[in-house]
Amino acid sequence: MPNYIDDPVDRAIYETAQAWPGGAKTLALELGLQPGTFSNKCNPNMREHVLNIREAQAMMCHTKNIKILTELARACHHICVPIKDYSGSSDMEILNAWADWDVERSETVTAIRNALSEGKINKRTLDHIHREMFEDFEKELALLERLRSLAV
């Protein structure tokens, strides 16, 4: 039997269920689902059992682990970035968020410049640039959400 754990979405479902204290069966009970059926749905080698979107949502909300959502988004050429509640942000908090974003952008530019000046972009440098860019996006969205909280 082939091992379907190589599929990133299947792997995310499996890992989310297994990482929960007590595993998939305990998680199922906490979600009000049948443990055996839920375990089968989280097993990537049980192709005839499929986790539905509401069950995946319940898993992510309960575990606070959005790995499934992240992999689904990646499969559709999108990304997931958490958005916090910044209501009531002061002017100083907004200026600090702007400065944080500028610092992150500078680190991203430096990472790209260093990779290009070395004349190669390998997996290690690409991973570093990827991390820097995602930190950049998160800081930019934090600034946007702080500004959004001021909108009337």
Characteristics of this structure?
152 residues, 67% helix, 0% strand
Characterize the structure shown:
By secondary structure, the chain is mainly alpha-helical. The chain is 67% helix and 0% strand. It contains seven helices and no strands. The chain has helices at 8-19, 23-31, 35-42, 53-63, 67-75, 91-117, 123-148. The longest helix has 27 residues, at 91-117. The termini are far apart. The mean pLDDT is 91.
Q: How much helix is in the residues? A: 55-70%
- Average pLDDT taken over every residue: 91
Assembly state of the chains shown: single chain
Alpha-beta content class: mainly alpha
Task: Categorize the overall geometry.
Answer: flat
Cα-to-Cα separation, first versus last residue: 58 Å
Number of helices: 7
What is the H-and-E element order? HHHHHHH
Major sheet characteristics: none
Q: Find the count of extended strands (DSSP E, 2+ residues).
A: 0
* Poorly predicted residue ranges: none
Radius of gyration: 20 Å
> How big a fraction of the residues is strand?
under 5%
In a few lines, what is going on in this structure?
By secondary structure, the protein is mainly alpha-helical. It is built from seven helices and no strands.
Per-chain topology:
Layout: H1 8-19, H2 23-31, H3 35-42, H4 53-63, H5 67-75, H6 91-117, H7 123-148
